[in-house]
Design a protein that fits this description.
This protein is α/β, with parallel strands linked by helices. It has a nine-stranded mixed beta sheet, with helices on both faces. Strands 8-12-10-11 form a four-stranded antiparallel beta sheet, with no helix packed on it. Helix 3 links the parallel strand 3 and strand 4. The chain is elongated and about 55 Å long. The chain starts with 6 loop residues before the first strand and ends with a strand.
């Protein structure tokens, strides 16, 4: 018998569409649920009990924290003057617990600094060989440094965009796309890879050197 894949979901403190997040978690069962700071407000409303809560709790209600403390949830509190963001701490914990796939909900929103910081986190998980996704109702974002496939029937939205995460991405191949590429070198100051579309039943993205941000999106 195969070993069960360990999948974590992190509920972070960015914008969360309640109905979308609830539906996503129902359709994607996880083995580890982590609330990061204000993300615990969603968990309380959804009547979900996380395995862990982390953060400096500068944006979470004290009564919500007390609610989960009474339920025996392990809480890891940090001082606001910390090096890592609450989401980074949650991702570190998910990796520490052996999860090989991580979903981050509430990791996008109006704070572009936090969104960019969370994409940087995706680069770290890619280096560690961990699947990690930033997900909201419009986007599924990941960083890759090898090869992935996306089935047209399973893609997240109509569009697939790619942006260099490292200074350069070499040996970039796009197969099964309206705009294909072969052994291309993409720099981080190009917008060439935006709004592509899958035209085959299954499309492939691969790189030989560097890291690539892959964004599946819908309007």
């Amino acid at each position: 018998m195969g070993t069960e894949k360990k999948i974590a979901a992190i509920i972070s403190g960015g914008n969360i569409n309640y109905d979308f997040a609830l539906s996503f978690l129902e359709k994607h069962p996880v083995t580890c649920l982590i609330g990061a700071d204000r993300g615990i407000e969603f968990l309380k409303r959804a009547e979900m009990v996380p395995d862990y809560i982390v953060g400096d709790f500068d944006s979470a209600e004290s009564e919500t924290l007390s609610h989960f403390r009474k339920k025996g949830v392990e809480i890891r509190a940090f001082k606001p003057e910390k090096d890592d963001t609450d989401t980074q701490i949650a991702v570190n914990l998910a990796m520490e617990k052996g999860n090989t796939c991580i979903y981050i909900l509430g990791g996008t929103g109006s704070r572009l600094d936090h969104v960019l910081g969370n994409i940087q986190i995706l680069g770290q998980t890619a280096e560690a060989g961990i699947e990690c996704y930033l997900i909201d109702e419009h986007n599924r974002i990941r960083v890759i440094n090898n090869k992935i496939s996306i089935k047209k029937a399973e893609q997240y939205g109509k569009f697939v965009s790619i942006v260099a995460h490292t200074t350069e991405v070499k040996g970039l191949d796009l197969v099964g796309f309206y705009y294909p590429l072969s052994n291309y070198t993409m720099s981080c100051n190009q917008a060439l890879g935006l709004s592509n579309e899958i035209i085959a039943e299954e499309a492939f993205i691969s790189v030989t050197e560097g890291a690539l941000i892959v964004i599946e999106s819908r309007d």
